[in-house]
Design brief:
The chain is an alpha+beta fold. The protein has helices spanning 5-38, 177-190; strands spanning 45-46, 58-67, 74-77, 81-85, 90-97, 104-113, 121-126, 132-134, 139-148, 163-173. The chain has a 5-stranded mixed beta sheet with strand order 1-7-9-5-3, with no helix packed on it. Strands 4-2-10-6-8 form a 5-stranded mixed beta sheet, with no helix packed on it. The protein is flat, with a radius of gyration of 23 Å.
Length: 191
């Protein structure tokens, strides 16, 4: 059975809408993958282990912290900068404090500048890989373990980078499902 002109147009339009919706849905994970692989936009890499080579060249790592507009925590780096040799493992800490009277969950997004260094700044472990939940009045120090990949000296755009800024922004997120139930039960028990 052949479709008439208006029916064919409707089928093509619906097909186009489905195709565009599928592409939009796939765009976010694809873009995230692309940024992690290339370091585009200052996205850092994730490494399983440190490199075998440590160069004599030193790079300054600066630490920056910010919060989304509605995030109630206080959030800051413990130290503002450190110097590490390229290939050497660095360990830095950020401090978070929940001044509210309720538990608050947060997730950190991150990037580095200059963007050309993004693909060479490698994290081994980071608080940003997991959601964080702080109890009322709780203060914690959260570690990030990292190194600058020695391959940076071979990149024509990144080889002259002497300072890299690692920036985190914390956003409030919903409490984990099981945690929210425990919190509700605790409130019921205190009343």
């Amino acid at each position: 059975m052949a479709l008439s002109g208006p029916q064919k147009t409707v089928v093509q339009t619906v097909g186009l809408v489905i195709l565009m919706g599928s592409l939009a849905w796939a765009a976010v994970p694809f873009y995230d993958w692309f940024c992690r692989v290339t370091g585009f936009g200052g996205t850092t890499g994730v490494a399983e282990a440190t490199p075998d080579e440590i160069l004599d060249r030193v790079v300054t790592i600066r630490f920056d912290a910010s919060k989304a507009k509605d995030m109630p925590w206080e959030f800051k780096p413990v130290e503002r900068e450190m110097k590490v040799r390229i290939g050497e493992t660095g360990l830095a800490f950020y401090e978070a404090y929940n001044p509210t009277d309720k538990p608050v969950a947060g997730q950190a997004s991150y990037n580095v500048t200059p963007y050309s260094a993004g693909g060479y700044f490698q994290k081994i472990a980071c608080f940003c890989f997991e959601e964080q939940v702080l109890e009322p009045g709780e203060r914690i120090e959260m570690p990030v373990t990292f190194f600058v990949d020695p391959e940076i000296v071979e990149d024509p755009e990144a080889q002259y980078v002497h300072t890299i800024t690692l920036s985190y922004t914390f956003y409030e997120i919903d409490l984990p499902e099981g945690y929210a139930a425990l919190d509700a039960q605790a409130k019921t028990n205190t009343n």
